[in-house]
Amino acid sequence: xxxxxxxxxxxNHLVSGExxxxxxxGLRIDQTLTQDATGTMAYLQFEAMGTERVKTELSVAYxxxxxxxxxxxxxxxxxxxxTVTKKHGIRFSRPGNGICHQVHLERFxxxxxxxxxxxxxxPTAGGLGMLAMGAGGLDVAVAMGGGxxxxxxxxxxxxxxxxxxxxxVGAKDVILxxxxxxGVKGGVxxxxxxxxxxxxxxxxxxxxxxxxxxxxxGATSSVFPSDDITRAFLKSQxxxxxxxxxxxxxxxxxxxxxxxxxxxxVPLAACPHSPDNVRPVSELAGMKLDQxxxxxxxxxxxxxxxxxxxxxxxxxxxxxxxxxVSPGSKEVLSMLADxxxxxxxxxxxxRILECACGPCIGMGFSPKSAGVSLRTFNRxxxxxxxxxxxxxxxxxxxxxxxxAITGVFTDPTTLGxxxxxxxxxxxxxxxxxxxxxxxAKDAADVLVERGPNIKPIPKGVRPAENLVCNAxxxxxxxITTDHIMPAGTKILPxxxxxxxxxxxxxxxxxxxFPERAKKLGGGIIIGGANYGQGSSREHAALVPLYLGIKAxxxxxxxxxxxxxxxxxxxxxxxxxxxxDYDRISEGDDIEIAGFADAIAGKEELILRNxxxxxxxxxxxxxxxRQREILLCGGLLNYTKDKENS
Length: 645
Prior knowledge:
It is a single chain. The protein is α/β, with parallel strands linked by helices. The chain is built from 21 helices and 27 strands. Strand 22, helix 17 (about 540-545) and strand 23 form a beta-alpha-beta unit. Helix 2 crosses helix 5 (about 135-145), helix 19 (about 595-600) runs antiparallel to helix 20 and helix 20 packs across helix 21. The longest helix has 17 residues, at about 70-90. The radius of gyration is 24 Å and the shape is globular.
């Protein structure tokens, strides 16, 4: 039986385990990336490991999230990252150079290689034929130190693409269609692999849009073949030498399949407040808008920008709409300026933001109260925009531009013939904002600068023999990391200051939670299905650890968040019977006798609800290695113990 693309890359990078779906495997990692909202912690952890020089083929630190400098905090973090990476052999992409995933696609991605990044949308590079995965910062730090990255061997979903996209229908509509079929939990424990004749009709930027939002499926990764179109893209980036053909075997077998006829797709929109709440734009036509935002790591390529500029040319953004455009990289912005497309957007009334994540993470350009915002982004979780009662819809650049002109939801297929977009054969490459690290012989002379906002990492603790505590919070299904640890302009500057950050933990759900957790000395959290979906931010585990959370009991977990909980010594438990979720209330006193012993080797644990007198069976679905990590109080302690043994 032949292998799929993902299976081939895994086989070539396997350092431990067997390729049996659901069992733990360890992978050699070729490349890593970080961004500044997660990078400070990742590099503090790397320093704590005591490794002098990064051991990957390539590691890059990007500044693209916390770029709004309303105080000293973000600038201090940037200088820390700049100096610590220079010392330890990591390239540094300066503020203004662009969004990590767009720049990595342009300048560093190599087909057939492995990549992990401390950002959940790292699978963007799957558009180049990489096996790229989002991970917690501590996992990235371990990989930079030469350690393996551990996941459960994924199943493979094969998505066959047929036909060709009609005019005004974009790659965003493809992934929204897949989300409508599979849902936000449909990719958990799986890699989504695209194949078929329709693949040849999609450019690398279009493929990257699709793999980017595989994160919203909960997928481990998403991947396209590396073919002649990939070669042409790399040639345009003046690095054709990085091209490697990557394709599935003719007799490859997928665990699941989905067929998408591109020619039948229509413009789609993900409605509030979930990426899988998808409806045709035609059904929403006429809805009044307040805001349109174009950009993010999903749709900020040269192709996306030229598409928007062509639709806006000689038009004016509706007076009731404010419109922002965030080019994905300096390369894109420079070329837009050279070809006149930037002038077309500015003349139409679009406000040009810097090459950064910006509004996608609530870092500026928040909608008005109860505003309706169309965004070419990847997430529309409640309050993520920075406005608690905003209604955010996810759409393609084509739909966004058409709607910005009319002031209402507009199906772009009603505009007539689509403009023909021709990309340059050779892009305007200039890596002057990517700083190379110091040579190993000079590294000792590099002074790492630490601002006063950078606080020590919370230390994980070994589990108690018996767990006796309070259920300090109960939440429902599909709790995101934005619920657990919000982003935005007021909060992101404290990503390197966990004590301050703790003041905002879960306040989207319960404003009293931080103080209650401190008063009670921590406890456990009760959650529903798909707990921890969304961003890879490890702060959603780090901050609860600081607040004394010992365990999370949920119906099910999102992959990256569960790994982050384990990495910081918080025990992720599931209900054997999901109906038992209703038998614990917030504020109940609970006990798990023999807690540490159970973590060491039992699949089932018995939780006694001391308030009601009931007993509930819980499951710990952890590998032997993960159990060792939990018994050590987290991955950092585990790594140190291994080094000292």
